[in-house]
Design goal:
alpha/beta, Rossmann fold, 16 strands, single chain
């Protein structure tokens, strides 16, 4: 498969073309020693539906398939560190299985996004062009990932966006599908998170006494799908009054004026959707013991070290998280967390860990099913198969190129009942007493929370 002239090395034969030839030759020879698609795979593969073909189980014997990891600050940031470790755990499990990946070993090559668009593009280019990885895994903020998409397109490398929920990423895929069809996502997008947030608010508002809600949403592109639609959804569903709705600066160091406004407007809840200013807001809300509950799509509160990082002053804060310590959204979730603890000595609740782990397994299953690492073979398969090996959802399918969100995970939970049954994405809350210990608890929807909602009032408001 040719690569664009801007990202090729002269004189090299494309490895994917060689693999395509090898697969064709293996099919001609016959199916001795082949495995059926219905056969059980290694951890995380599950039972699949797909084309009724068989692939030689030693097709890639003696080879090494390379996975490139683009993690957000893995040396300093829990979201990046645990994403890298989740992917590494999946790689280790496959390498220790009886036959690897059709006889091949997996190798994980790690780089950092540095939370910088320029660094994201350069490090992606290095992995795709210089290292010639077979697949990418990672990414973070949409601005960075959209620049990653250029070397991905030029080198025609399959990629899983596993650490970010930006909707503009899929809008870029839709705007030029043939160029950007190599990008899939192993995490829900921000529009889906917004709908889950609305379902939660509709369920919890009456029992929590949330009659008036202030909505503050950080002025980042990733939250464009949340800000106005969330406010409109709260009003349209009759959940509560919204006397205050603002996009907030990415550099706020003093939340007092905004919290004062919410207090003066007699708000019962501040729904704050934050990334860069999230720690500051949570800390200042807790230390001042404001007379309203606090929650939202708060990215940093999804990390297991959040409680200590804010000085243990924010009990009652809630957010969405793809997987928490006690989540029951799928049977595989707790099993994977146990294996993670055995490997690294602690359990994690970092959403990126589960999404990166899923991405490795998702790709490996597709490679085994198609007998190919060529995106031209994998993309049609990924678009039409149902995968039961995900730890995030009971079943996982992708939207095709004609959908609003091409190559995003299908979302079938527009209402509370369906969301309860699906269990994805869950809502968590840091529950505990003020200035004491707190634990991240899965509080909704019912499937993930063990059958009932478990939301609690902030301690000083009980």
């Amino acid at each position: 498969m040719p690569r664009d002239s801007g990202d090729t090395r002269d004189g090299t034969v494309d490895r994917r073309d060689l693999l395509r030839s090898a697969i064709a030759g293996a099919t001609t020879v016959g199916i001795a020693g082949c495995r059926s698609l219905d056969a059980a795979g290694p951890a995380g593969t599950g039972n699949e539906t797909g084309p009724g073909t068989e692939v030689p189980n030693d097709l890639f014997k003696g080879e090494t398939l390379k996975i490139g990891g683009m993690w957000p600050l893995p040396d300093d940031y829990t979201i990046g560190r645990d994403a890298q470790r989740g992917a590494a755990l999946a790689v280790k499990e496959h390498n220790q299985s009886s036959n690897g990946v059709l006889g091949a070993d997996l190798k994980l090559l790690n780089r950092s996004t540095d939370i910088s668009p320029a660094a994201s593009r350069q490090n992606t280019r290095e992995l795709c062009l210089d290292e010639e990885v077979d697949v990418l895994n990672g990414g973070f903020l949409g601005q960075s990932y959209k620049l990653m998409m250029e070397p991905i397109a030029s080198t025609q490398t399959l990629s899983y966006f596993s650490c970010g929920a930006s909707v503009p990423v899929v809008e870029k895929i839709a705007s030029n599908y043939e160029r950007h069809k190599y990008n899939f996502r192993s995490i829900g997008n921000m529009a889906q998170a917004r709908d889950a947030e609305l379902n939660f608010l509709e369920t919890a508002a009456d029992r929590m006494g949330w009659d008036r809600i202030a909505v503050f949403t950080e002025n980042l592109e990733v939250y464009d799908a949340v800000a106005d639609p969330l406010v409109q959804g709260i009003r349209d569903r009759g959940i509560a009054e919204v006397p205050i709705a603002k996009r907030t600066s990415q550099s706020i160091i003093d939340w007092k004026p905004l919290f004062d406004q919410a207090e003066e407007a007699n708000c019962d809840l501040v729904c704050a959707n934050l990334v860069l200013t999230g720690m500051t807001a949570a800390r200042q809300w807790g230390t001042s013991e404001r007379p309203f509950d606090f929650g939202g799509i708060h990215l940093l509160a999804m990390a297991p070290d959040f409680w200590e990082a804010v000085g243990r002053v924010s009990p009652g804060l809630w957010t969405l998280n793809m997987g928490a310590f006690d989540s029951q959204q799928t049977p595989q979730m707790s099993t994977m967390q146990d294996r993670f603890k055995q490997e690294y000595g602690y359990k994690t609740s970092a959403y990126s860990c589960f999404c990166a782990y899923d991405a490795v397994n998702n790709w490996v299953e597709a490679v085994k099913a198609t007998g190919s690492t060529d995106p031209e073979d994998l993309i049609p398969y990924l678009k039409q198969r149902t995968w039961n090996g995900s730890i995030l959802k009971p079943t996982l399918e992708y939207y095709d190129e004609d959908a609003q969100y091409p190559h995003d995970i299908k979302w079938s939970a527009p209402d509370i009942e369906t969301w309860n049954e699906l269990g994805f994405p869950p809502v968590i809350q840091w529950q505990g007493e003020k200035n004491g210990e707190a634990r991240m608890e899965t509080i909704a929807p019912k499937r993930a929370a063990g059958g009932e909602y478990k939301i609690k009032k902030t301690p000083w408001l009980r």
